[in-house]
Specification:
Number of domains: 2
CATH superfamily of the largest domain: Medium-chain alcohol dehydrogenases, catalytic domain
Shape: globular
Radius of gyration: 20 Å
Helix content: 25-40%
Structural class: alpha/beta
CATH topology of the largest domain: Quinone Oxidoreductase, Chain A, domain 1
Number of helices: 11
CATH class of the largest domain: Alpha Beta
């Protein structure tokens, strides 16, 4: 099978950054299904793993967003059979989706939305799982308590990115008042179209931006950007007994004591935790992807794909990594399958 990846860490400007090789076809055993990949998308985790790869001569296939068709199943698989159309985000500890075929555990896979093509569907899994777990597992928002949530406000830092784009929609479905950050005219328009109630500029002090809206604090904060940059500000803005979640690593030590007087909480979200540690509740990612697939088919959730780069090739993948690293990507970037 064809697979695209890297042999060593390198900057995105490096000529021939990605290589295409012929790899052995993997065999599905246990809970694994073998998927013929028909569409993929890129996320910041792709370039983070690329940059952090060990220079040991091994070949690393990236990619953690995919949709495709089940080609074979392991002997313990009960959720799928050959020919099923599926979508998933995969497992960061395993070989990625930038290949013709990929093994993935059935418990983190779900039937793809019927209303979307493969590349379109590939835009959503990783960001959907991340946003869903952040809102409903980490911030403990009751998504069914729509009326009660109407009096509560969430600040989403980085609303126009892939995760922010789905988080806005899920937060609105739960009934929350959504304030998000954006700075460019095109990103402001993007987040408003997704349902944001208010937009503030992250290039200015967030407390001053919120004060202009007559908001002194918020019940929830979802940080999809730089934890180091925003930690102290988030501690200042969170309401008493409020909750903060971030998906970005902190390189600095932060004073969590700033949260004590308010009895506020801070937590991290990593959507790979369940698959990486084989938690007892891995199946929850199958369930949530199935739920969101139905919401997509019902027209409740909008797709967040903003650009398609055509067939997946070493050249188109390098172009996408460059756009992601620039910080100017809006929504998601998708690809069709590796060409024959």
């Amino acid at each position: 099978m064809k697979a695209i990846g890297v042999y060593k860490p390198a900057t995105v400007e490096t000529d021939g950054l990605f290589s295409q090789i012929d790899a052995d076809i993997p065999v599905a055993t246990g809970h694994d299904i073998l998927v013929r990949v028909k569409g993929v998308a890129v996320n910041p985790v792709d370039f983070k793993v690329r940059k952090g790869k060990q220079d040991d001569g091994s070949f690393k296939v990236l990619g953690w967003d995919a949709a495709g068709i089940v080609e074979a199943v392991g002997d313990q698989v009960t959720l799928f059979r050959e020919g099923d159309e599926v979508w998933y985000a995969g497992d960061v500890t395993r070989s990625g989706s930038n290949a013709e075929l990929q093994l993935v555990d059935e418990r983190i896979v779900a039937p793809k939305p019927k209303s979307l093509g493969f590349a379109e569907a590939a835009a959503l899994p990783l960001t959907t799982i991340t946003a869903w777990e952040s809102l409903f597992d980490r911030l403990l928002i009751d998504r069914a308590a729509v009326q009660a949530n109407a009096s509560k406000t969430i600040l989403i830092i980085g609303g126009a990115g892939g995760v922010g784009s789905i988080a806005i929609q899920l937060a609105k479905l739960a009934g929350l008042q959504v304030i998000t950050t954006a700075s460019r005219p095109e990103t402001i328009e993007w987040v408003k179209n997704l349902g944001a109630d208010q937009v503030i500029n992250h290039r200015k002090p967030l407390d001053e931006e919120l004060a202009a809206l007559n908001v002194s604090n918020v019940d929830y904060i979802f940080c999809t950007s730089e934890t180091d940059q925003y930690f102290d500000m988030m501690a200042n803005l969170i309401a008493p007994q409020g909750r903060i979640v971030s998906i970005t690593e902190a390189a600095q030590n932060h004073n969590v004591g700033l949260l004590k007087a308010k009895s506020a909480s801070f937590s991290y979200e990593s959507m790979f935790a369940r698959s990486m540690f084989k938690t007892d509740d891995m199946i929850e990612q199958h369930k949530l992807l199935a739920t969101v697939a139905q919401l997509v088919d019902d027209g409740v959730i909008k797709n967040t794909v903003n650009e398609s780069f055509g067939p997946l090739t070493p050249q188109s993948l390098q172009k996408a990594h460059a756009l992601l690293e620039s910080g100017k990507a809006i929504g998601k970037i998708t690809f069709d399958a590796i060409p024959d």
